[in-house]
């Protein structure tokens, strides 16, 4: 047991990912504090990550040969994503049963929906590479479906009528990240059925799908690799810069916001992990280590930006939501390295 813990805590790849995320977040914090980047620059960083870097990451993560085991794992994660959000709806109702009125709805939505895209995906990609990024983007499909439907209805207090449904469907399926995810996913899944071309020559010649641009049009694919490599560092810089803008003094004295943050970053991913252990042991829905780790990190993320925007725009505990967003981000920055170590231990102990 000691050797397993020692090897986990001295894993250079793991330590490098942890140190990189924390140090670049702190760099963004210091740059903003010293006014080397202003509020506008921080927002632009966020926009670049969401509209350029993360879509590139989503697409390139699927540019690989079809692997039956990865396909099976990807579909398991997709199923689990939908199941998990359905499970969390009644669980959070029980967790916050003592909270009354609008605040209970706010608690529940902020707890169910984390910043999986902006905070979670870059960390998963940094630690688990293209396979983790692929699983993260698959997991984000049900996340966005529930975020733009269930979360919107609960926070707005309105019914999902025809106009709202149409608007939210656009938000789900015309989002650049979702478009890139579906495009890459479909190419990856059906590459054996697409028109084939020969690439390479001699002994290195092989047949690939024409839409595998990493092989057929490498000069077109290369810019996407540069853009996807920006996702993690730019996201971490933006997180640090955003933290620097929020007044800590008012937020840190709000005990319920601290309570929410601990539930969001510690309790929810623990529920996710325990359920996946049970499902894997019983054989109901076996998920490999990379898939489990991806979902845990995604659920250990701070308040989702869209969920917070719902609360503020619909005047549902706006101040409380802002404090929750700040404190949960701080807690997530501290807790994520711990979760990475815990997950590595589960792998080394043979749980997954």
UniProtKB/TrEMBL annotation:
Q: Might you report a single GO cellular component term?
A: membrane
Report membrane topology: Multi-pass membrane protein
What are the protein's UniProt keywords?
A: Cell membrane, Membrane, Transmembrane, Transmembrane helix, Transport
Q: Which Pfam families match?
A: Mem_trans (PF03547)
Q: Which GO terms describe its biological process?
A: transmembrane transport
InterPro entries attached to this UniProt entry: Mem_transp_PIN-like
- Please, which domain of life does this record's source organism belong to? Bacteria
Compartments, record wording: Membrane
Q: Which residues cross the membrane?
A: 12-32, 44-63, 75-97, 109-128, 134-153, 173-191, 226-244, 265-285, 291-312, 324-342
* Protein's UniProt keywords contain Secreted: no
Protein name stated in the entry: AEC family transporter
């Amino acid at each position: 047991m000691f050797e397993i813990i020692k090897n986990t805590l001295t894993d250079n790849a793991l330590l490098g990912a942890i140190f990189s995320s924390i140090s670049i977040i702190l760099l963004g914090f210091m740059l903003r504090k010293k006014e080397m980047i202003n509020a506008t620059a921080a927002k632009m960083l966020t926009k670049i990550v969401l509209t350029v870097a993360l879509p590139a990451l989503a697409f390139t993560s699927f540019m690989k040969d079809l692997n039956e085991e990865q396909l099976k794992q990807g579909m398991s994660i997709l199923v689990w994503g939908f199941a998990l959000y359905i499970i969390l709806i009644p669980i959070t109702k029980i967790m916050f049963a003592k909270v009354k009125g609008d605040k209970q709805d706010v608690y529940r939505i902020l707890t169910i929906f984390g910043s999986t895209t902006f905070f979670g995906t870059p960390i998963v990609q940094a630690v688990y590479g293209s396979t983790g990024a692929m699983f993260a983007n698959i997991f984000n499909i049900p996340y966005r479906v529930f975020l733009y439907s269930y979360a919107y209805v609960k926070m707005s207090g309105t019914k999902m009528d025809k106009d709202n449904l149409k608007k939210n469907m656009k938000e789900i399926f015309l989002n650049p990240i979702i478009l890139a995810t579906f495009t890459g996913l479909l190419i990856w899944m059906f590459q054996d059925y697409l028109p084939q071309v020969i690439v390479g020559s001699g002994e290195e010649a092989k047949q690939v799908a024409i839409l595998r641009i990493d092989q057929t049009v490498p000069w077109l694919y290369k810019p996407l690799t540069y853009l996807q490599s920006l996702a993690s560092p730019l996201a971490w810089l933006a997180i640090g810069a955003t933290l620097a803008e929020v007044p800590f003094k008012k937020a840190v004295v709000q005990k319920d916001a601290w309570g929410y943050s601990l539930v969001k970053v510690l309790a929810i991913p623990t529920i996710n992990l325990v359920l996946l252990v049970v499902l894997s042991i019983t054989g109901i829905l076996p998920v490999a280590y990379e898939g489990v780790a991806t979902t845990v990190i995604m659920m250990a993320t701070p308040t989702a930006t869209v969920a917070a925007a719902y609360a503020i725009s619909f005047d549902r505990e706006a101040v409380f939501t802002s404090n929750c967003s700040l404190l949960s981000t701080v807690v997530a920055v501290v807790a994520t390295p711990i979760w990475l170590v815990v997950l590595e231990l589960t792998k080394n102990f043979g749980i997954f």
